[in-house]
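Backbone-to-sequence.
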């Protein structure tokens, strides 16, 4: 493994050196840097329409708030080398405080893009295929978990057992510290690979120096490698097709969060078609094993979305099933051994003004277990999002 790591570092250094100008002393290294600030501020209200445990609630409604702030730095040298970085602050709210979810730098040239730091994994870059999120992004809608339909969390219950990519149930996160390579795009085709020494989420993301040489309670995997490929192009008649797939592997470590030291082995395959204002996607995520269980778990997520004028309408459905004796447990009811999970949702988003969107969505979920009480939940969510 040391030889592989040293070899990869040498290749990265060689790529950088080959693109550097002859004399760094001849350049003002800060004069061309550009700073861009972006983000969103969002507020949401949620009404619980039904819940397995609603008899225990003191009220069936709540308000939430969220915000994101992104700082991007970028420059391009005379030789064509682009370099820059990103710092992203997430979950800016009274409830969550602030999470720093992106801290990375990158260099980009004809050789591709090398990224260093707390950056999205290839399993998310290529493995996430979801039409609603793509169209919402095109109109500046969708704010973190607010108005994102099945890409959001469900703050008043549910959303425990499904995956659009391995950053969901599998524990693989975009906050762990990694090195990543993404190829240029050739005739619509691109690929990428990354390496993460330790996966443990935001509290154990590879910045602890000597401490990271020792596993702590939050550590899940070590030596995680993910790779993926993507093709996108016009297949005629104004129809755009995207097809993508990924694979992720990691060694499980024995900690409180992974007591059986299950390895990570996950695969995704997804496709999206888009024509005019309509788009449809289907995405499959398969875990052969993950930190929660050694039994296989599969999710298929489908979406159809349509934009016209200032409106976006979407319907989504996710179906998840798991092998027998999987130890997946409902956190609210204590039921165990998940049999299957169904989530259906519908969203309507309206653009009030540039950067200002409001939305309403309904999400229904049913979780069936082989042992214990099943879980059922339905929420009505509506809110406003200001993107800048």
């Amino acid at each position: 493994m040391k030889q592989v790591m040293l070899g990869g570092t040498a290749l990265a250094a060689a790529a950088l050196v080959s693109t550097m100008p002859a004399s760094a002393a001849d350049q003002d290294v800060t004069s061309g840097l550009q700073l861009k600030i972006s983000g969103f501020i969002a507020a949401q209200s949620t009404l619980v329409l039904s819940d397995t445990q609603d008899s225990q609630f003191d009220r069936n409604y709540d308000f939430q708030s969220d915000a994101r702030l992104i700082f991007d730095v970028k420059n391009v040298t005379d030789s064509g080398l682009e370099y820059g970085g990103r710092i992203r602050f997430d979950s800016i709210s009274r409830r969550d405080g602030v999470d720093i979810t992106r801290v990375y730098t990158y260099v980009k040239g004809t050789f591709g893009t090398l990224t260093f730091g707390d950056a999205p994994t290839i399993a998310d870059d290529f493995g996430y295929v979801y039409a609603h999120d793509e169209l919402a992004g095109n109109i500046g809608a969708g704010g973190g978990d607010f108005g994102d339909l099945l890409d959001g969390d469900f703050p008043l219950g549910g959303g425990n057992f499904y995956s659009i990519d391995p950053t969901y149930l599998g524990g693989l996160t975009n906050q762990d510290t990694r090195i990543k390579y993404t190829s240029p795009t050739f005739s619509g085709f691109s690929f990428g690979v990354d390496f993460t020494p330790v996966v443990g989420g935001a509290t154990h993301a590879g910045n602890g120096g000597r401490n990271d040489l020792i596993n702590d309670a939050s550590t899940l995997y070590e030596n995680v490698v993910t790779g993926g490929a993507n093709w996108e192009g016009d297949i005629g008649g104004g129809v755009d097709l995207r097809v993508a797939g990924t694979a992720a592997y990691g060694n499980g470590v024995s900690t409180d969060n992974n007591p059986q030291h299950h390895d990570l082995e996950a695969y995704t395959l997804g496709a999206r078609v888009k024509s005019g204002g309509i788009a449809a996607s289907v995405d499959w995520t398969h875990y052969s094993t993950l930190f929660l269980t050694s039994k296989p778990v599969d999710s298929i997520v489908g979406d159809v979305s349509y934009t016209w004028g200032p409106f976006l309408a979407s319907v989504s459905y996710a179906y998840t099933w798991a092998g027998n004796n999987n130890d997946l447990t409902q956190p609210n009811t204590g039921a165990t051994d998940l049999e299957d999970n169904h989530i259906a949702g519908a969203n309507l988003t309206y653009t009030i003004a540039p950067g200002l969107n409001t939305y309403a969505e309904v999400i229904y979920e049913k979780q069936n277990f082989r042992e214990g009480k099943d879980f059922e939940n339905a929420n009505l969510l509506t809110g406003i999002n200001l993107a800048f």
